[in-house]
Amino acid sequence: MLVTGNYPALAAAVRYGTHTDPATAFEAGLDVVLDGIAAGLAPGG
């Protein structure tokens, strides 16, 4: 898929992206999920 040239942004992200350790990635993802839940529970959310 990347060698087709149809997705240059994805190819660059794969090529030059950084790799975080699993614990950091999990914590960041959990923060996003919890922020979304909090926003949904807020008045008017």
Structural account:
The chain is mainly alpha-helical and 45 residues long. It has a domain at 19-45. Helices cover 64% and strands 0% of the residues. The protein contains 2 helices and no strands. The chain is elongated and about 45 Å long. The model has no long low-confidence stretch (mean pLDDT 92).
How do the strands and helices of this protein lay out in sequence?
Blueprint (H helix, E strand, L loop, with lengths): L7 H9 L5 H20 L4
Pfam family, one: TetR_C_1
Keywords: Transcription, Transcription regulation
Protein name: Tetracycline repressor TetR C-terminal domain-containing protein
Q: In angstroms, what is the radius of gyration?
A: 16 Å
Shape: elongated
Which sequence of SSEs, written as H and E, runs from N to C? HH
Strand content: under 5%
InterPro entries: Repressor_TetR_C, Tet_transcr_reg_TetR-rel_C_sf
Domain Tetracycline repressor TetR C-terminal: 2-39
Keywords: Transcription, Transcription regulation
Protein name: Tetracycline repressor TetR C-terminal domain-containing protein
